[in-house]
Amino acid sequence: MKRIKKLIVKLLLVVATINVSLAGLAGLAPVHADDAPAFGMDARAAYAIDAQSGQVLYQKNATKLYPIASVIKILTLGVIEQDIRDHKMSWDQKIKITPEVAKMAGDWHFSNVPLNAGEEYTVRQLVDSMMLVSADGSTEALALADAGSTAAFNKKMQAFAKKAGVTDAKIYNMIGLPNGDLEKHKLKGVDKDAENLLSAKDVALISKYLVEKYPETLEITKQKFANFDVSSEQQYLMTNVNALLPQNGFAPKSGEIDGLKTGNTDRAGKCIVTTGTFSGRRIILVALHTKGEWNDQSKMQQDFYNKLADEYQPVTVKKLADLSGKLAKVKVADGKDKKTTKLKLAKETTVWLPKNMTLKQTKPTLKLDKQYDQNGKLRAPVKKGQQVGVVELQINGLPTMTVPVTATQTIKKDSLF
Fold it and tell me: Rounded mean pLDDT of 110-133?
């Protein structure tokens, strides 16, 4: 009898063990492919967008503020290009180098081209060196010639960032170095270790605004080589540090990269923002504090672009019916003589989809804005052309995309009297 009891106990233990094992396997089941991000970035933060549509292709800690090192120079460039267009500076304008700037340019700890005190260099020369080899002395010379001080130039940078839709950036200088490294030109009353803080999304928005408003930017950043005349007797060959440019070692196999900027400090780590056109669409990709070496960073960006081109394609959405015929009409609440009305896209747009997916498979869902939503009905009054909500699209491997929709007619509110 004791043997039978022992046998029963053993059998129960075996069954329990099997059940626990199965439960464990269930907990480790892979995430469904449709829900898993299509891309991965071994970085502290990252953000990728289609610049024309604003569609987010990837995001990771995208709104958290981090140091971005010399990537801030895209914002410095924006201010300079803005002031050139406004005739406050010119490309051929000559800037005389002060001893303090020459000292910065000669410090081996920083990225630089040599600048001789008392020598004059054109704005174009200094901009080229700032964007191709991240020259810190050149950047300082430009900002001081433009605004007179670090603090004054910072205000210009903040204003430019705001135009790009960025309001949370903490800006301490034009170079991307810790405040104390600017010595005489550092901010007074600010910690010597203070660095510019922006999010990956901030960097993408500034990049987008920069290349759209000032397309001449890309004529600068796509240069692979340029000569810098240090003096009449000395010339310095600058090689663009962007390894993803065409024919470079990490150039994507399709599409073409033509910008934008890298950066590195101890706190920021290795940072990068690149941009290029793929299937006729401009893509912007930001990665902050990437892991590994510079080649690892370049390979990671190359992999992103290659996968985007291989597995995804841009699809044009011309009208709501392209997404779903059911979304074109909505019921109206409290409308005068109107029980239903038609909606339309705010504008034609383009959506990146997996090559095996159609628009109608994105599970389009109408989301009315809070002020217009009355239990799923469109609350009157509404003006023709007014945005009343968005259509959400669920795209395999990508973040949810929203497409704005507007009212097609004016609807007055029904009156009780």
Answer: 97
